[in-house]
């Protein structure tokens, strides 16, 4: 009888293996947190409203903001000349590969390759208004 109980527990454990949401099957739980992805950016960027610039400009309110427009930050000539606004498409391209999106940028970050992580990060940044 004991071997059947061990087998049943083992089968239940394996049935939940690989599920990201604790086994409930719910799609409501985000696989990637934008806040977690932002931790890679925090060494150079702040996100607090009115926060100081660091090695990179403060990113509070970046979504919908004019490119290269944070007062007091010295942008590369390439980014200053880009023009436009930081909409979701522009941010997605820049976050994926800053050097490819804006040749001559001083941003040394190699980029976020995962489309899912970029989407989560942009959604997180969109909330900062």
Automatic annotation (TrEMBL):
SUPFAM superfamilies referenced in this protein's UniProt entry, alphabetically: Cytochrome c
Keyword set for this entry?
Electron transport, Heme, Iron, Metal-binding, Transport
InterPro entries this protein is in? Cyt_c-like_dom (IPR009056), Cyt_c-like_dom_sf (IPR036909), Cyt_c_1A/1B (IPR002327)
Q: Which residues form the Cytochrome c domain?
A: 29-129
Q: Source organism's superkingdom? A: Bacteria
The name on file for this protein is C-type cytochrome
């Amino acid at each position: 009888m004991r071997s059947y109980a061990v087998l049943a527990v083992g089968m239940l454990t394996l049935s939940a293996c690989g599920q990201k949401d604790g086994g409930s099957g719910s799609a409501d739980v985000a696989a990637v947190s934008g806040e977690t992805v932002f931790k890679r950016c925090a060494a150079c960027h702040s996100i607090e409203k009115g926060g100081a610039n660091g090695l990179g400009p403060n990113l509070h309110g970046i979504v919908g903001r004019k490119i290269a427009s944070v007062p007091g930050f010295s942008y590369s000539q390439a980014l200053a000349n880009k023009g436009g606004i930081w909409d979701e498409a522009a941010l997605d391209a820049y976050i994926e590969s800053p050097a490819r999106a804006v040749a001559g940028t001083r941003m040394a970050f190699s980029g976020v390759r995962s489309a899912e992580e970029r989407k989560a990060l942009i959604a997180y940044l969109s909330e900062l208004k």
